[in-house]
Structures are given as structure tokens and as C-alpha cells.
Design a protein that fits this description.
By secondary structure, this protein is of the alpha/beta class. The protein has nine helices and 15 strands. Bound molecules: flavin-adenine dinucleotide and FE2/S2 (inorganic) cluster. FE2/S2 (inorganic) cluster binds next to loops.
């Protein structure tokens, strides 16, 4: 696919506001899991490229000209904003077109938007990341940030679950993290709902990893991201272990259109997911998630 779009000069204020869609070129496409690909992009305009920054957990509105625009989390290292990864599962109209993109194709990005993971809130204590399936994509930039600032945390623990081995994202990276205890200073445990003969890690839902992680509720800050049902069970168990609600953070997905608090498509109770989220503290949105009913 090839699109006829061109970059133009833009003021820094516009870039920071993220209002104008900017053209980016697909540099590399990597299959991560079943129907899921990472698109490595560079912004075409050198001024925009140099000015662009994002925080872990933020999203871009990822557009294909003539097709549409959808919210996608940035999945790469925030310390390297000149190379941007978006990890996307093909599920519908726009994502199925994105699946056909190849190196050299052009897309648009608008953003970054949203409230990021508060990585610095975990400094001095333990950071626990609990991710399920595609939820590892928005969580990965927070893990990179913690690795770069490893000395600021007592422990960094990453627990990942997926439906099966073929649904586990970033497998080479996770293998490296999981097979050497405390590789890059992080403790990684993996599990799948249904294992096969090739799978060397755990079997069961992600919460079955909690006992292995020896979670100390007094000093642990939790970031969790994945299907809402997974997060509800994870939060229930974490509260049961004594982790305070104010130290549990979740990434929430709702349909989005404008990305800038104008259209109302992303409303969640009194909040706009595009601006007040996608990262929320559990005590802000707990009642809206229905954990108490589990
Ligand atoms: C804050 C945020 C971050 C996201 N990050 C990522 C990411 O990193 N990678 C990724 O692959 N996807 C991500 N998504 C989801 C992605 O935006 C949707 O999959 C996409 O909008 C679907 O567009 P489509 O036109 O291909 O599908 P459609 O044809 O619109 O829909 C296909 C199916 O997906 C469902 N769907 C549509 N939008 C969503 C949504 N937001 N959440 C759940 N189900 C939806 C529809 O109900 C329908 O069943 C994120 C969404 C949000 C709100
Ligand atoms: S996406 Fe329009 S208000 Fe949030």
C-alpha cells in the first residue's frame, strides 16, 4: 500500500498540542503474536521528529488516510522517541487495513495523548507490572523507564499472562528477561491459560503468579493492563493481599474519536478516557469497574 501524503512545517505548539496529524513512514513490521504486529515508525518531518516526546502509557491516534484513525498505545522506549513502535492486533475495519502495511508505507500520527503511568510514584519501593495479552504493549514503555532508572526501585517485578504461547507478545525479549533471574534488574514470570509442549513457563491465569512474586503490600505500586475481566480479578486479589487502592493503577480502553476531550465517545462515568486516562488510579474508578461484584 502506498499513500500520497506529505509532511509540512508545523509549530512546536501544534506538535505539543498533538492536534495536527503528522505523517510517518513504516520502517519495519514485526509479527509478535497471532494477528498482532509491531509497526516501527519514524515521523517524516525532521522538526516534528526531533520535538516529539511521549510518556509511558500514552497513545497516538494512528491513522490510515482514507480509512480512519484509531487510538493505539506507544509500545517502545520513551528514551528513544525518534523510533516509535505501535503494537496492533487486527480486529476490525481499520486494524485489518493496518495489517497490510509494509515498510515504506505512510500513516499519520496525532498525539501523544493521555495521562501516563506514574513510574516515579513507585520510586523507593517495588514496582509490580501485571499485564495480560495485548496489555503488555502499553506497559512496556513503563518497564523500559524502570530499567533505565533501576536504582530508584527496590524491586521491579513483571508478571505476564496470555491465552496461549502464540498470544504472548515480545517473546524474545520476555524469554531473555524470564530465563535469567533478575535480567536487567527485573524479575519476570510468565504464564498462559493453556500451555503446550513447547511452553517452559507457568500455566494458569496471571493471578496464579502472585504467590511467586512475594508481593509486599506495604511498599508495592502496581500497574495493570489487559482485558478488563483480567484486571478486575487482579485488583480483587491485590486488594486482598493488602495493596492500597491508591497504589493500583490501570489502563482503561474505551472507543475514541477526537482524542482531545471534544466528542464524548470515550466517557467513563465523569471521566474522559482520552484526557483523564487511559491510566487511572483504582480508587478513582473502582466503582465503575465492578470489582466488588466479583
Ligand atoms: C487507550 C487505548 C489504547 C489502545 N491501545 C491499543 C494497542 O496498543 N494495540 C491495539 O491493537 N489496540 C489498542 N487499542 C484498541 C484499538 O483502538 C481498537 O482495536 C481499534 O480502535 C479497533 O478499530 P477497528 O476499526 O479495526 O475495529 P472496529 O471495526 O471498529 O471494531 C472491531 C471490534 O473491536 C471492538 N473495538 C473497537 N474499538 C475497541 C476498543 N477501544 N476496545 C475494545 N474493543 C474495541 C469493536 O466493538 C468490534 O467488536 C486501544 C484502545 C484505547 C482506547
Ligand atoms: S475521544 Fe473524544 S472526548 Fe475522548
Amino acid at each position: 500500500m502506498s499513500l500520497d501524503v506529505s509532511a509540512s512545517a508545523v509549530s512546536e505548539a501544534e506538535i505539543l498540542a498533538g492536534v495536527a496529524p503528522r505523517v510517518a513512514t513504516v520502517r519495519r513490521v514485526v509479527q509478535e503474536a497471532y494477528e498482532t504486529y509491531t509497526y516501527w515508525l519514524t515521523l517524516d518531518d525532521p522538526v516534528v521528529r526531533r520535538a516529539y516526546r511521549f510518556e509511558p502509557g500514552q497513545i497516538n491516534m494512528f491513522g490510515v488516510v482514507g480509512v480512519g484513525e484509531i487510538p493505539i498505545s506507544v509500545s517502545s522506549d520513551p528514551a528513544r522517541p525518534m523510533r516509535l513502535a505501535h503494537t496492533i492486533r487486527a480486529t476490525g475495519r481499520v486494524t485489518n487495513v493496518i495489517k497490510g502495511l509494509r515498510p515504506g508505507d505512510r500513516v499519520t500520527l496525532r498525539g501523544p495523548f493521555g495521562r501516563p503511568w506514574p513510574v516515579s510514584a513507585a520510586r523507593g519501593g517495588n514496582l509490580l507490572v501485571v499485564a495480560g495479552g495485548l496489555g503488555l504493549a502499553p506497559a512496556r514503555p513503563a518497564i523500559y523507564r524502570a530499567i533505565r532508572d533501576r536504582g530508584a526501585f527496590r524491586r521491579v517485578i513483571v508478571l505476564v499472562g496470555a491465552r496461549g504461547p502464540e498470544h504472548m507478545l515480545f517473546r524474545h525479549e520476555l524469554d531473555a528477561w524470564a530465563q535469567w533471574l533478575r535480567f536487567r534488574g527485573i524479575e519476570t514470570h510468565l504464564t498462559v491459560d493453556i500451555a503446550d509442549d513447547t511452553w517452559p513457563y507457568g500455566e494458569g491465569v496471571v493471578t496464579t503468579l502472585f504467590p511467586r512474586a512475594s508481593i509486599d503490600p506495604r511498599v508495592t505500586t502496581v500497574f495493570t493492563c489487559g482485558p478488563e475481566i483480567m484486571m478486575r480479578f487482579a485488583v480483587r486479589d491485590l486488594l486482598g493481599l493488602g495493596v492500597p487502592a491508591r497504589r493500583i493503577w490501570l489502563s482503561i480502553e474505551r472507543n475514541m474519536h477526537c482524542g482531545v476531550k471534544l466528542c464524548g465517545h470515550c466517557q467513563l462515568g465523569p471521566y474522559f478516557v482520552c484526557a483523564d486516562g487511559p491510566i487511572f488510579r483504582y480508587d478513582e474508578i473502582g466503582e465503575l469497574m465492578g470489582v466488588a461484584e466479583l
